[in-house]
């Protein structure tokens, strides 16, 4: 019959001291517990690793001799659960819902990091692991009952925490008694440790029959505690080859190899004991004298003398702090075979670090017991290796997951570099935290990098969160999204030319900003690029606009049918009525050539060449529409229509800035670089980039080629310097000349290394996705753009896929594009068959090649 013991009787923690919140063990060791917020992985530079390492060293140096630091990182496998009850998903359309379904049950690694500072009642060096409280009890030393001991401990802990907090590198949160124990709302610290879970409040059995089994999970423990197992040199960071290139160095902390880079259930314990360097030196002096007397008899004594001399020299001359260190990794899983796989992978990771992996076979139980929060003083002298503080802390895990939430308002659905879905908020959260000063942004993505697809994804989520978007496009990349989102798609066709009406105001009483924008439009139509306007001309045009609306209001009040505001009525007013007003105001031809003004603007009037352009009676509600796409592909080379239309668009956007309140109003210019060469448009961009933030606006510019940026003074001054938000896609084509990109975009070396890692080391087991880098000031991270099949069908601009969806809409769904996209995602094609697997998932190759032949687990899905 198996003999069992009660955990309550053996549990080594006596109580939690209410006044101080400290853990008190049955050995009378006292411990302060913190939760530590580590840095986000894959977003740290070499310099930041060095700075963080310096913080760890400075904090440890305030601890007196005999104190211990126990850092415990818990990494627990979990799966993503979509928030289908969220109001956003209930109210938005099918794309967001399908994306959540796509990521449902996606595995990821949860991480919690705890830091414990312990003042042992008796020196751990006088204990061995065989004296664990799991096996026997201890008496309480008298000094631990002295209030001065507690006061000293609290003071030291506060100093330690202050160094962490003041550095700004990591955040420490002191755990309260209610957080240490299960309070019904969240799982307590000890429940997490004894259940090997972050959510299970149950205290499970610990079975020692066949190895160490905890909560039904088989465990394996590797230790690093013998100096002979250490490599000759230990650094705080290393080069991550999978994200590095020939010209870039991507750093990662050394400890991450046993942290976030172990993608399965494990606990990483890092332990320090502050050693008395002087006492150790004196002991080594005695040993050196003893070795010297025997040196002639053994070469090993000579080697020992040299190593001890070198050690003492480091301590005395360089004032190095001596510590005892221990590290162990506990891996676990319910399936013993899977646990064995984890064991092998952990051994390989330790070996790659240059250490000799040592599997704990006889002392795994006592190691696990000593690493109970607050019980680290039981680790035992036989599990501690003497080394210097700098090397000991270099092995600490200092990174965690991206801190983006699974869901947040104003968020864009992306993934981290492990494939975990997250909602990234580039426009609102960073502004509130003071990371950026405005919401202007740039998107730079060479051909084939997934730029248009990523932009469709961005625009979709912005619209879903209520943003108003005016988008200027050249290439037709947003037609399908515009249709599915109920937007207005404005383009030029021979039988349906592009048309606007900048003069239409519902109440015929425009505000000053609208009148100014209209005056600027008229000036741009009249003057050539670069031709200056006199003050008299500016004043006169502003007066014509003012008098025109006064006349329109009078005509409306008297029931005149010609009171509809448009260019034709404006032109007629300027030609027929304004000359008398001009003369009454003592205007002269020398100050304003009214006939020349009317002559140059005549092509836009009535039945003349461009009479359709500014007289629309249908595009008069653009101020109210959340989504308007201006597709300029057919007129991008037209010498009149293109510049006039772009100016008209800007005029419309300015009016929206001042008329629509309470929502973000975004203007996105996609590949409209011809317009940037126009002086009046450049002036608008300069104004827009500096002013829209005051009216809850955002200017976004999208470009394909770096050459569009390099050497373009207009872009440099008006766009780059005032766009703190930047999205960069794969820049590998420019790797050899990336210094130009760095200079143009004012990138740091850290940002350059992160950007050049885009699409490096992609996971081949994930569905197809592309990386993009998000830059917010000095902040820079790489995310994955991965969506569901339905969203892919909505966002894709690949011609073959677009044609398949359009054909399906025409032949089967009566031009219902939404139904066609959903059907295409299920595998339907116009008049054909598509192989699917047993679950009905289309067998589509990610690069669009024909599907592979069927086998016994697959079937054909007939299109009904």
Automatic annotation (TrEMBL):
Protein's UniProt keywords contain Endoplasmic reticulum: no
Keyword rRNA-binding: no
Gene3D superfamilies from the UniProt entry: 1.10.8.730, P-loop containing nucleotide triphosphate hydrolases
Residues covered by the TraG N-terminal Bacteroidetes domain: 2-53
Region (Disordered): 842-864
Residue stretches making up the TraG P-loop domain: 411-826
Keywords, sorted A to Z: Plasmid
Matches recorded under PANTHER family: CONJUGATIVE TRANSFER: ASSEMBLY, PTHR38467
Name the record gives this protein: Protein traC
């Amino acid at each position: 019959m198996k003999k069992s013991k009660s955990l309550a009787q053996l549990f080594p923690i006596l109580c939690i001291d209410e006044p101080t919140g400290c853990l008190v063990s049955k050995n009378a060791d006292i411990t302060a517990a913190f939760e530590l917020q580590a840095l986000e992985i894959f977003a740290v530079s070499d310099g930041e690793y060095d700075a963080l390492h310096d913080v760890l060293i400075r904090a440890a140096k305030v601890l007196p001799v005999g104190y211990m630091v126990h850092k415990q990182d818990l990494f627990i496998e979990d799966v993503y659960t979509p928030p289908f009850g969220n109001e956003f998903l209930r109210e938005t359309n099918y794309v967001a819902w399908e994306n959540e379904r796509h990521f449902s049950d996606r595995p990821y690694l949860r991480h919690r990091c705890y830091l414990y500072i312990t003042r042992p009642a008796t020196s751990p060096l006088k204990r061995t692991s065989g004296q664990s409280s799991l096996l026997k009890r201890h008496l309480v030393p008298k000094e631990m009952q002295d209030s001065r001991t507690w006061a000293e401990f609290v003071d030291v802990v506060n100093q330690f925490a202050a160094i962490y907090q003041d550095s700004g590198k990591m955040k420490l949160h002191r755990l309260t008694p209610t957080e240490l124990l299960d309070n019904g709302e969240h799982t307590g610290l000890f429940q997490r440790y004894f259940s090997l879970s972050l959510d299970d409040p149950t205290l499970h059995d610990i079975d020692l029959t066949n190895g160490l089994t905890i909560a039904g999970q088989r465990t394996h423990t590797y230790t690093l505690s013998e100096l002979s197992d250490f490599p000759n040199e230990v650094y705080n960071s290393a080069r991550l080859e999978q994200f590095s290139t020939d010209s870039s160095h991507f750093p990662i902390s050394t400890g991450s190899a046993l942290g976030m880079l172990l993608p399965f259930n494990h606990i990483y314990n890092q332990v320090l004991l502050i050693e008395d360097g002087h006492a150790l030196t004196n002991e080594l002096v005695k040993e050196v004298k003893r070795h010297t007397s025997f040196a002639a008899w053994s070469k090993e004594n000579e080697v020992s003398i040299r190593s001890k001399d070198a050690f003492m020299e480091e301590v005395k001359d360089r004032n190095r702090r001596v510590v005892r260190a221990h590290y162990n990794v506990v891996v676990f899983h319910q399936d013993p075979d899977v646990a064995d796989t984890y064991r092998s992978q952990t051994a390989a990771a330790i070996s790659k670090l240059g250490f000799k992996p040592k599997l704990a076979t006889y002392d795994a139980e006592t190691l696990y017991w000593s690493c109970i929060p607050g019980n680290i003083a039981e680790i035992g002298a036989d599990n501690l290796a003497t080394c210097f503080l700098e090397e000991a802390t270099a092995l600490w895990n200092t990174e965690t997951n991206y801190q983006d939430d699974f869901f947040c308002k104003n968020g864009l659905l992306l993934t981290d570099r492990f494939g975990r879905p997250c909602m990234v908020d580039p426009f609102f959260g960073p502004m509130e935290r003071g990371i950026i000063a405005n919401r202007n942004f740039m998107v730079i993505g060479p051909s084939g990098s997934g730029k248009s697809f990523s932009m469709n994804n961005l625009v979709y989520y912005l619209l879903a969160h209520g943003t108003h978007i005016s988008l200027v496009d050249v290439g037709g990349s947003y037609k399908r999204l515009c249709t599915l989102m109920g937007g207005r798609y404005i383009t030029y066709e021979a039988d349906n030319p592009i048309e606007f009406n900048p003069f239409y105001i519902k109440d015929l009483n425009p505000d000053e900003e609208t009148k100014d924008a209209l005056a600027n439009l008229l000036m741009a139509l009249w003057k050539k690029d670069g031709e200056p306007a006199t003050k008299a001309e500016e004043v006169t045009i502003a007066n014509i606009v003012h008098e025109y609306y006064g006349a329109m209001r009078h005509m409306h009040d008297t029931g005149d049918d010609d009171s509809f505001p448009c260019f034709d009525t404006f032109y007629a007013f300027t030609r027929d009525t304004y000359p008398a007003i001009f003369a009454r105001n003592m205007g002269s031809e020398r100050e304003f050539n009214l006939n020349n003004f009317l002559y140059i603007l005549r092509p836009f009037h009535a039945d003349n060449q461009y009479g359709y352009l500014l007289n629309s009676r249908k595009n008069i509600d653009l101020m109210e529409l959340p989504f308007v796409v201006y597709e300029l592909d057919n007129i991008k080379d037209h010498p009149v229509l293109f510049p006039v239309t772009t100016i008209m668009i800007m005029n419309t956007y300015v009016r929206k800035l001042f008329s629509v309140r309470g929502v973000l109003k975004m203007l996105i210019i996609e590949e409209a670089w011809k317009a940037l060469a126009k002086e009046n448009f450049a002036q608008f961009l300069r104004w827009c980039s500096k002013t829209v933030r005051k009216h809850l606006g955002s200017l976004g510019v999208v470009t394909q080629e770096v050459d569009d940026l390099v050497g373009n003074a207009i872009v440099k001054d008006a766009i780059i310097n005032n766009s703190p938000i930047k999205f960069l896609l794969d820049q590998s084509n420019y790797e050899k000349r990336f210094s130009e990109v760095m200079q143009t975009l004012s990138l740091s070396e850290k940002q350059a290394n992160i950007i050049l890692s885009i699409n490096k080391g992609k996971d081949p087991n994930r569905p197809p996705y592309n990386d993009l880098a998000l830059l917010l000031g000095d902040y820079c991270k790489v995310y994955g753009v991965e969506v569901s099949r339905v969203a892919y069908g909505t966002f894709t601009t690949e011609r073959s896929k677009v044609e398949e969806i359009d054909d399906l809409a025409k032949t089967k769904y009566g031009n219902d594009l939404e139904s066609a996209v959903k059907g295409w995602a299920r595998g339907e094609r116009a008049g054909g068959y598509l192989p699917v697997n047993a679950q009905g998932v289309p067998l589509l190759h990610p690069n669009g090649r024909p599907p592979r032949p069927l086998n016994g687990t697959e079937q054909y899905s007939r299109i009904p």
